[in-house]
Amino acid sequence: MTLPTSELATASSVCDLTVVGGTGDLALRKLLPALYQSERRGNLAPGTRVIGGSRHDLDDAGYRAMVREAVHTHVPAHELDETVIERLLDRVRHVVVDADSPEGWDELHGVLKQAESDDVVRVFYLAVAPRLFGPICQRLDDIGVVEPTSRVVLEKPLGTDLASARRINDAVGQVFDEPQIFRIDHYLGKESVQNLLVTRFANTFLEPLWNSRWIDHVQITAAETLGVGERSGYYDTSGALRDMVQNHLLQLLCLVAMEPPTYVGRETVRDEKLKVLQALKPMSPEDVDRDTVRGSYAAGVVDGAEVPAYADELGRPSQTETFVALRAEVQNWRWAGVPFYLRTGKRMDRRTSEIVVVFKAPPHAMFPGSEGATEPNRLHIRVQPDEGMHLHMTVKEPGPGGIRLRPATLDLSYATAFDAVSPEAYERLLLDVLKGNPTLFMRRDEVEAAWAWVEPVLQRWSSLDERPDEYPAGSSGPAAAEALLERDGRTWQETDR
């Protein structure tokens, strides 16, 4: 049965979505299941096609079999509908292309020219290594399939430092204009992240408190229980700072700290996020030594199972960090003096991504002789899993015989509050690409501003020639991460499991 469509989400234009890297892990695990969900909800325009491009010698039937298996593997069983799968497969084609070879690209040209509509929008999703972004864009230009309405989607990581990011942006920018380039960060497609904007700007009681007068500090955490697994080769050239902080965590920081835009639109939100990145206090070598922590997981126990150390998975010692904690400051009028603590790690004791806004303690004890104590209010925004928000307050425990102060929580769980399942981030973001809405995507100046802030940390770490602190797999990270906050008289806020 086709689910009701959302006018806001439906891609009304007929599109040819070409996924270069169409047989890769990202395409099979995320993109194709997301397209199935869009098909299931009726959000793909009639005539829209999905063209997988890869080096595999597959015909259309072979690729469709691969797509079918991916959907059955990565879509929950209760959401599978064979009729919907067949509708999606009817849209699917495959061409053999290789970024390092001119062979096959003329075939892609021929397939794109077979579009049913003359005004079809061509979208090129580059689900490949970033070093291939420039060469692929040049090949697309060479075969004459890039038009003013075309769009290109770039996956992270966009480079390994500021210079490489600029080289990639320059190469892609020689073919596509900036409004045609969609740099994707799947965190920005999550329901709770987008709801942060609504929470801040559609509720008048909260915005007057959203500043240094009332907020003590902000914590942003992205923790995983998984290790690097089969990604060890990539990960050892990246590390947690490049893989998570430079993009995901800084994007969340921007949404927390940004000024209210005149309206939530295509460029207004990105303009305000850029201002936050530009206002981050630059990291001197002394700041890096004092305000950053890097770790690497040792052997331990996660979810009741013994797991090896990062070095054992890699097969050799490494100076690459699998954990980062750091203290940042936004130097502007709203946030002066408010620290932002960022933390991310693999093989942690829980899987969670969350933002915690900790308000200042009441300035005066109003209840002499009472039992218990007031606690600072905290707003927990759960990004994953179990998306929602929790507002922690101090209340009076019911009963006679005096005042007993107790902490209590106001809970908003999206799963229970709304009679609808939140779409996966990639489903939402793919539809935004097809609609041509860049609001939730990173602009070039954002990406480069983030790299400019992160780069001094990378340079300082590389100059020290030290291995990261070890932490047992299944723990909350190195002891130095706890000390980072304790030095300021604070502690990490852990949501109840």
TrEMBL record:
Described function: Catalyzes the oxidation of glucose 6-phosphate to 6-phosphogluconolactone.
Family: Belongs to the glucose-6-phosphate dehydrogenase family.
Active site per UniProt: 248 (proton acceptor)
Region Disordered: start-end pairs: 466-497
Domain Glucose-6-phosphate dehydrogenase C-terminal residues, every copy: 197-493
Gene3D superfamilies, per the entry: Dihydrodipicolinate Reductase, domain 2, NAD(P)-binding Rossmann-like Domain
Chain positions recorded as NADP(+) binding sites: 55, 156
Pathway: Carbohydrate degradation; pentose phosphate pathway; D-ribulose 5-phosphate from D-glucose 6-phosphate (oxidative stage): step 1/3
PROSITE patterns membership: G6P_DEHYDROGENASE (PS00069)
InterPro entries the record matches: G6P_DH, G6P_DH_AS, G6P_DH_C, G6P_DH_NAD-bd, NAD(P)-bd_dom_sf
Organism: Nocardioides flavescens
Biased composition (Basic and acidic residues): 484-497
Protein name, entry field: Glucose-6-phosphate 1-dehydrogenase
Catalysed reaction, written as an equation: D-glucose 6-phosphate + NADP(+) = 6-phospho-D-glucono-1,5-lactone + NADPH + H(+)
A GO biological-process term: glucose metabolic process
Keywords, sorted A to Z: Carbohydrate metabolism, Glucose metabolism, NADP, Oxidoreductase
GO cellular component, one term: cytosol
